[in-house]
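Dear colleagues,

For the upcoming journal club I promised to circulate an example of a predicted protein-ligand complex. I picked one with zinc ion because it came up in last month's discussion. The inputs are reproduced below in full, followed by the predicted structure.
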Amino acid sequence: MYTVPQIEAARLPGLLRAMPKAELHMHIEGSLEPELIFALAQRNGVALSYADVESLRAAYAFTNLQSFLDIYYAGASVLLTEQDFYDMAMAYLERAVADNVVHTEIFFDPQTHTARGVAMAPVIQGLHKACVDAEKRWGISSQLILNFLRHLSEEEALQTLDEALPYRAYFSGVGLDSSEVGNPPEKFARVFARCKDLGLRRVAHAGEEGPPAYIWGALDLLHAERVDHGVQAVHDAALMQRLKDERIPLTVCPLSNQKLQVFPDLADHNMPQLLAAGLVATVNSDDPAYFGGYINENFVQLFAATGMGSDEAYQLAANSFEASFVPQSRKQAWLGQLQMAFAEAARQS
Ligand SMILES: [Zn+2]
């Protein structure tokens, strides 16, 4: 049994930044920084309805999921070529490496692009090439997870899956994102059943703004192996018990929850409660360009606001490895690295 070294509070932010971690809930289109949006708009001759980088950044004052999504889709409109998708993913991967992310499972929304007339090939190939190059250059491993937009129909999701299947080798799983309330999991039961038959891993956004019933639906009707967000589970004791017993991970995104008013004050975030209940909860950045920070910023601000300490830091990093879709041997190797980071921090204390 491993005993977590206790690191003094003043050194905790440094440890949170230095410790190896996996990121499992990050939408690549949500990593597009205003500077890159403007650079790509210029390269592609796309007109933006914002005069400059500052006015675009100023527009990020949204207060709920829908007002955020409106700006998010406008930003994605500059992505046209394989090179654009490659550049976007490399920018994120470099940023993730700087935050000591050793493994990332990247969400992408093909329908945001195919609806604008961009073909599936440049989207998936550009992202895939970035994943390959980033691993060669920086050692970070990654997978792609294709997300269906839940405000669209299941027929459109099925069609998107068909268009993506020629590139089956480039993505490991599927997810479900976009506007949650009013678009319950059962709407996508058939397409997820098909994905399961195809051997694809399955995740789904549920219980961000939506009720615990959406989390039950994600598990029972979509056969989701991980729940994205899931913070509303605390309102349902039977659901909490099931998540704990079956070790179903929650990919929680603190700064996103704050920005979208799920927890307007980070001090009220229920991460301490999720961990105390024994759930496999993790910290992630969701849409880092829009929500005020990449994964380390999420860790540091969450810990400062809630007063969590060394035990929770270790647990969250260990959970991120357990929750990832990689072989056990690699998870074990990362745990070894994590324990070395804690030992190093303890030596400096
Ligand atoms: Zn998300």
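Two points we might discuss: The first helix runs from residue 12 to 18. The chain has one domain: 9-348.

See you all on Thursday,
B. R.
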